[in-house]
Amino acid sequence: MMVVVVSNAPPRLRGRLAAWLVELRAGVYVGDYSARTREMIWEQVLSGLDSGDAVMVWKAPTDQGYDFRTCGRNRRMPVDFDGLKLVSFHPNKNW
Question: Which domain of life is it from (predicted)?
């Protein structure tokens, strides 16, 4: 299972994601695909995001049981902490 959440995404990207995934709420997409297809969907997000931001999370064989990626400007950024992927909050300056 994987989840993609986009904010401030252009309509063309939202339509492209809706072709592959189910849109549960505005900007929240869910599906179950192979790693290869997941990479292709992420490339679509990267190429079509413009000034928005996105996060993708999927089930993975890690200690946490999942992994995730982010792109775009957002106060929440992933950091590695002794092998665990956590989220760091940047100060609210010019966001």
Answer: Bacteria
